[in-house]
Structures are given as C-alpha cells and as structure tokens.
C-alpha cells in the first residue's frame, strides 16, 4: 500500500509511518539530523513534514555549501508524542531553495543575466548549480551575488534584488545586487533610503538609532509583523502603508 499523508478529525494532521520514522530518527539524534532524510525515499513526505510545521530544513552545520540537515520543531515532538528537550532550538530558518530542476538544497547564490534585447533575469541556486548556470548563460553577461541571511524572495525585476522582512518594524527591506557582497549592513527600505535606519523602531525606542535588519527565523518575522506601527500584520512594503516621507502613524485606536 502506498504510504500517503493522512488526516484525522484532530486539528493537526497525523504523520504517516514513514514520516514518523523520519522524525523519530531526528529526535533520536538530538533533534537535528543530516541523514534521517534517507529513511523517506522521496521529497514529497518531507515537504509534508515541513508544511505541517514538524521539521525545518536548514544548511548543514559544518557542511559544504548546499548540504542540508533537518531540525525537529516543537510541533514535531508533539506529533511524535514526545516531550521537547529543554533548551532545544526549535526554530524555523528563513531560506530559499535552489531553483535548479530537482535540487532541494538551500540556495546560496543569486545569478543575474541579461539576454540580448530582453529584460534582465535572475535565479537562486546552490553553489554547484550557480557555477553550472553561469556557464549556460555565459554569453549573456552573468553576474553573481551571495544570498544574505533572511532573504525570502526577490523583486520581480530581474535585477537580483533580495527581499527580507525587518525584524524591528516588520516591513519589507531590500538588499540591492550592487551591494549584496559588501561587508556591513546594506539593507534598505527603498532605493531612496540612504541610511538604512528603521524609523518605526526609533520611534519606539525614543530616538535611539536602529538600523533595518532582516528577520532570519519565521518566529522573528511573525513577531515583527504582529507588532507593526502601522497595524498591518500581512507582509508589505513601508511605502504601501503610508505616503513617502510621511511620518509613521501611531497604533490604531481600539
């Protein structure tokens, strides 16, 4: 019989036998494993574990670029009927998956290129496939930049601009291709932002200087979205919640 995901009348799904073995192997290895995925035999059931919030995929600690491991989250321990060990780091990192066909490694490099007579294009790859893709588009002026921690997507302009969520104000922030490889913090709220300072956070702190920084975990991102000054909890750019140049409004009256 095919091992498929099942659901019950409970508010959360029930792991299949294969998913249970996969998560149990991670738990038995201290909550993190780079080898448990081999017990599954396919990516579909692992993706089911991720979408249910049971496990998180992340770069392998001490591994080579593109190598991954899986971390069992609090919901995963609950699905197994086990207690989560004290001090266990049950976080979900914000990552991007390699866009090469059938590659599920974490993307570490964005490749941008410009076909003759066309708008620019970009894709995210693990290091191995980034090198391969540069050869494929060698005649179209390819260029590369590292994908920063906290990047969750790219602006749809083909320029390779990275998008994250500020951990202080909850708004979209941008890392432009030309500065992505520079040392220091170059995240900005728009192309006209010259300082990178987070006005909403400074308003909360009474004037202390605070700079935009990307949330690197789902938990940090969700906490920032729940505490936006503008009151909007869905992800959005700062320019979408108030006119450019206008000071942030206080929290909505209740």
Please sum up the structure shown.
The protein has 6 helices and 9 strands. By secondary structure, the protein is of the alpha+beta class. The chain has 2 domains: 64 residues, Orthogonal Bundle (Arc Repressor Mutant, subunit A); 130 residues, no CATH class.
Quantity of strands, as a count: 9
What are the secondary-structure elements, in order, as H or E? HEHEEHEEHEEEEHH
Name the overall outline: flat
Indicate the radius of gyration in whole angstroms. 21 Å
Q: Please, what is the average pLDDT? A: 83
Structural class: alpha+beta
End-to-end distance: 55 Å
Description:
The chain is α+β, with helices and mostly antiparallel strands and about 250 residues long. The chain folds into two domains: about 15-80, Orthogonal Bundle (Arc Repressor Mutant, subunit A), CATH 1.10.10.10; about 110-240, no CATH class. The chain has six helices and nine strands; from the N terminus they run H-E-H-E-E-H-E-E-H-E-E-E-E-H-H. The chain has helices at about 15-30, 45-50, 75-80, 125-135, 200-205, 220-225, and strands spanning about 30-35, 55-60, 70, 110-115, 120-125, 145, 155, 160-165, 170-175. The strands form three sheets. A three-stranded antiparallel sheet has the order 1-3-2. A three-stranded antiparallel sheet has the order 5-4-6. Strand 4 and strand 5 form a beta hairpin. Helix 1 crosses helix 3 (about 75-80). The protein is flat. The N and C termini lie far apart (about 55 Å). The model is unreliable at about 1-10 and about 245-254 (pLDDT under 50).
């Amino acid at each position: 019989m095919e091992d498929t995901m099942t659901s019950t009348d409970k508010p959360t799904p029930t792991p299949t036998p294969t998913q249970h073995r996969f998560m149990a192997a991670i738990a038995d290895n201290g909550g993190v494993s780079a080898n448990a995925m081999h017990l599954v035999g396919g990516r579909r059931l692992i993706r089911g574990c991720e979408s249910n919030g049971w496990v998180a995929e992340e770069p392998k600690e001490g591994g080579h670029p593109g190598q991954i491991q899986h971390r069992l989250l609090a919901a995963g321990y609950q699905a197994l009927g086990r207690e989560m060990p004290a001090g266990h780091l049950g976080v979900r990192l914000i990552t991007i998956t390699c866009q090469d066909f059938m590659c599920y490694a974490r993307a570490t490099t964005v490749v941008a290129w410009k076909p003759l007579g066309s708008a620019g294009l970009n894709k995210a790859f693990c290091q191995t496939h980034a090198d391969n893709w540069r050869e494929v588009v060698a005649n179209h002026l390819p260029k590369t930049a590292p994908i920063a921690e906290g990047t969750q997507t790219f602006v749809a302009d083909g320029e390779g601009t990275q998008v994250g969520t500020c951990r202080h104000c909850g708004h979209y922030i941008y890392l432009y291709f030309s500065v992505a490889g520079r040392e220091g913090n170059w995240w900005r709220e728009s192309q006209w932002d010259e300082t990178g300072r987070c006005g909403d956070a400074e308003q909360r702190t009474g004037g202390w200087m605070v700079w935009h920084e990307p949330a690197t975990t789902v938990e940090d991102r969700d906490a920032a979205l729940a505490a936006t000054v503008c009151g909007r909890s869905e992800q959005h750019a700062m320019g979408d919640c108030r006119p450019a140049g206008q000071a942030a409004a206080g929290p909505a009256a209740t």
